[in-house]
Amino acid sequence: MSLRFGIAVFPGTWSDRDCAHAVELSGAVAVPLWHADRDLKGCDVVILPGGFAYGDYLRTGAIARFAPLMEAVQEHARAGGPVLGICNGFQILCEAGMLPGALLRNASLQFRCQPCWLRVERASSPFLGTLQPGQLLQVPVSHGEGRFYADEETMARLNAEGRVAFRYTDSSGQATAAANPNGSLESVAGILNERGNVLGMMPHPERACELLLGSDHGLQLFPAVLQQLAPRSG
Amino acid sequence: MVSLKEVVNDPQGLVVQEALHAVGYPEVGGARVGKFIRLELEGPDQEKAGARVEEMCRRLLCNGVIEDFSFELSPV
Q1: Sheet containing A29-34: which strands, arranged edge to edge?
Q2: Does the residue B31 lie in any domain?
Q3: Of A64, A87, B19, B60, which cross-links A50 as Cys (Cβ 3.0–4.6 Å)?
Q4: For residue A50, which of A202, A176, A209, A198 has the smallest C-alpha distance?
Q5: Would the CB atoms of A105 and B11 count as touching at under 8 Å?
């Protein structure tokens, strides 16, 4: 039986169809999940895609995190179910307290839409299972508020526990200031929760799934989950 | 009032400060950009209203990871 990926749709979500395409390319089934429902429809994995949920009013993700669907997503994550938040989804996960830190206005004050290099920092997560630490992926970012911030203590803990999933680097894997598109603390592009089943990242792997679009590196995140979960779900 | 914590870099505030310098206000030593939210509440009990507003700030209006808040109440 194919794995089911639930893809959350809030008013203002814009990357849900790209996520569904990536999921289908990986051989799984994409199931849209409406923000006002509490039902995950038997999905094995939940993706919170990019966009501007509820207009991003007040703060990015601040209102979306109270959506009825988020209760079910939190429950799913508590039970160890994989959750991937991309861009706005990452912002929602931080607002919901499912990941530490926050995403602030880009240091440049500009919306940045550009290809970026990511260095994989860790691989023991359902989403990173087939990747190697140190591996470089070319994946685009597209956001105005992606500057990761956490207080010193939290950042030290993320480092100590190996919970930084990706950092922005140049094409040789160096995390330079010039390669950091938004001024994120320590070039952080993605982080994991304590158990490793919740991943939040600002770059869009679903937009790097076809060579026609410049890179298919993003596609590697989706089969990683399939491989990890396959024995469990038969 | 919801504002970024002092330890959080505020690039918008820095640009405002630079702009004020550029138009002739060199005495501006710092600028922070925050949010002003006006709420209208019903009920005569100020103390109760204050407790409710504080809760609203903690749950929704302010993200304690990056922001601080303050508020004042006045009868309408």
Answers
A1: A29-34, A4-9, A45-48, A83-86, A198-201, A188-192, A164-169, A112-120, A136-143
A2: yes
A3: A87
A4: A202
A5: yes
- Residues 203 through 222 of chain A touching chain B, CB cutoff 8 Å: none
User: Which ipTM value was assigned to this complex?
Assistant: 0.87
* Domain range for A227: 4-233
Q: List the CATH number of the domain containing B17.
A: 3.30.1280.10
pLDDT, averaged in runs of 10, over chain B (76 residues): 95 96 97 96 92 97 97 92
The predicted model scores a pTM of 0.94
Q: Is residue B74 part of a domain?
A: no
- Partnered with residue A141 across adjacent β-strands are A114
List CB contacts (< 8 A) between A145 and chain B.
Answer: none
CB spacing of B11 vs A108 below 8 angstroms: yes
Q: Nearest residue on chain B to A63, judged by CA atoms?
A: B60
Residue B49's Cβ-side half-sphere holds a number of Cα atoms within 13 Å equal to 13
Task: Check residue B43 and give its pLDDT.
Answer: 86
Retrieve residue A73's tokens.
Answer: 């997503």
Given a contact cutoff of 8 angstroms between Cβ atoms, the answer to whether A106 and A182 are in contact is yes
Distance (Å, whole) CA B50 – CA A26: 52
Give the burial string for B33-66 (b: 16+ CB within 10 Å, else e). ebeeeeeeeeeeeeeebeeebeebbeeebbbebb
Tell me which residue in A62, A105, A109 faces B63 most closely, judged by beta carbons.
A62
What CATH number did the domain enclosing A204 receive?
3.40.50.880
Task: Name the residue type at position A29.
Answer: V
**C-alpha dist (Å) from residue B15 to A103, A110, B11:** 19, 13, 6
- φ and ψ at A192, to 5 degrees? -115, 160
Number of structural domains (chain A) is: 1
**C-alpha neighbours within 13 Å on the C-beta side of residue B24:** 0
Residue B75 in domain: no
